[in-house]
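From the pipeline queue, job 12 of 40. The input is one protein chain; the requested action is below.

Action: predict structure.
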Amino acid sequence: MPLDRDGFTDRPIRVDLQVIADMVQPGSRVLDIGCGDGALLDHLMHFKQVDGRGIELSQKGVNACVGHGLSVIQGDADTDLKDYPSGAFDYAVLSQTLQATRDPRMVLQELVRIGKRAIVSFPNFGCWKVRAHLMRWGTMPVTKSLPEKWYATPNIHLCTILDFVELCRELDIFIERGLVFVSGGRMRPIHSKRVANFTGEQGLFLLQHRTK
């Protein structure tokens, strides 16, 4: 595996993961839920010196993480988050996973309980590309942020940015920062929720519970 000049693993990460990494303060305690192959955790530990832990559902993902020396266990966000103490982490991260959970409402509540802050990203089903595909073809869209056919996708609770913002309001979760990724991977801050809902391919939010 290639090394950078400091001897750390030099693993390129997706643009959205880099934005998440930029939100995390150095030396923080981080729990990455649905961490995949551990690319974000690896980056945070080596370049932000975080105390990083991970949960991953697939054994393949866990094996990849352990092979990179990461502290990751096999677990399910729908059932295992309740076992973590409140405020155990500075950040609880859920990247491109909320829509694949059975109970997104409960998972979101657990995130802001476990972490002093939560970082959540998800594909936006309200994006104009999705709407255009449905209007033109009448079939479930396949896009960069929704790459699988309907019968093969792990996503079971697709939502829009407006849906997510409303759920945060219902759960008394404060949105500290909101971003969308538009065509070409460009990142934009959310000034208008409706414009973001129409143009954003992905939403990314920094959250905390209002009582914290």
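Job complete. The chain has one domain: 15-209.
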